[in-house]
Amino acid sequence: NRLVAEFIVEATESILDELALMEDYDAGYVCGIIAGEVATDVVLVAASGGIAVAAKSATMSRVLTRLNNIPGIPPQILDNLNDVSQRLEQIRTAARGRGIAVEQTFSVYYRLRQREDLVGGWPALRRYLEVTDTVEGRRLDVAVRPLIDEAFRDAYAAATEGATPDLTKVPKVSELGEWFDTRLKPADLHKHHTVPKYLARDLQIPEALFDDMPGIVLHRVDHLDLGEGSSGFHKILRGKLPPRRLEDPPYDRDIILLRLEEAYAEHGRPDVWLVAREWLRQRGVQ
Predict the structure, then answer these.
(1) 106 and 147 in contact (C-beta within 8 Å)?
(2) What's the pLDDT tens digit per position in 35-54?
(3) Burial call 53-65: b when 16+ CB within 10 Å, e when fewer
(4) Are 6 and 38 a contacting pair, CB within 8 Å?
(5) What is the pLDDT of residues 56-103, one digit of tens each?
(6) Can you state the angle between helices 75-94 and 2-20, rounded to 10 degrees?
(7) Can you spell out the DSSP letters for the chain?
(8) β pairing state of 215-219 and 189-193
């Protein structure tokens, strides 16, 4: 018990050291994950490499309390525990405003993932949106952006685990509409067709299938061409394949595929392109 306690204290301190350097918003995000890891063993990994394994069904605060009650812990360990407890409370208090909302958002999300054994980001996000579709739950929407980003990264990672991307692991564009106008759009989040429509037309994809393609939700800054200095996906893509005039000939298929692959790589989301490319293959674009 003593060795375990020492390990947990040191690891917890390394995590708190990382949190202390974070902005309130980011600290709230991490605290939300900590608080949400309930109903199974909790594993926390900090950027410093520290790992803490907590008792079942216990948040960090409860872990610290239980460690205090382990008999025979040396006084210096108890001193460290008390210091960690105080610092944790300080960080949680500091995560005010949007930070608190981020904490609550991730807490709900991770509780649902654990309790209902939801695998992959999309099922968990869909369930989160269902559970929080209340007046009280919608108050958390001010902090939904980082959750959306993480959930879609999880979804596309799950879809690309195998040799052939699994399109069932990610939502179609049409599936994003249920909550979009009321929950996501007010948070400056946009629905993104993974094959932009002007290029899908050049690839001879029927417009009736546009909303059947894999979709992703991006913040407007990550999505749009907002002018000089912008790093949104469409800013990157337009530098490679600008929207053409109606009288111009369509882009060549191989050029479209190459430039889309390059754009997604430059945007840091090659996983999204793998899924979109598989959808195109299934629609006859070889």
Answers:
(1) yes
(2) 544 222 333 332 223 223 33
(3) ebeeebbbeebbe
(4) no
(5) 223 455 555 655 665 555 566 566 656 656 655 555 554 445 566 777
(6) 30
(7) -HHHHHHHHHHHHHHHHHHHTS-HHHHHHHHHHHHH--SS-EEEE-TT--EEEEPTT--HHHHHHHHHTSTT--HHHHHHHHHHHHHHHHHHHHS-THHHHHHHHHHHHHHHHHHTT--SHHHHHHHHHHHT-SHHHHGGGGGHHHHHHHHHHHHHHHHTSSSS--GGGS-BGGGGHHHIIIIIGGGTEEEEESS-HHHHHHTT--GGGGGGSBEEEEEHHHHS--STT---HHHHHHTTSPPPPTTSPPPPHHHHHHHHHHHHHHTT-HHHHHHHHHHHHHTT--
(8) antiparallel
- Average pLDDT rounded to a whole number, residues 204-208: 96
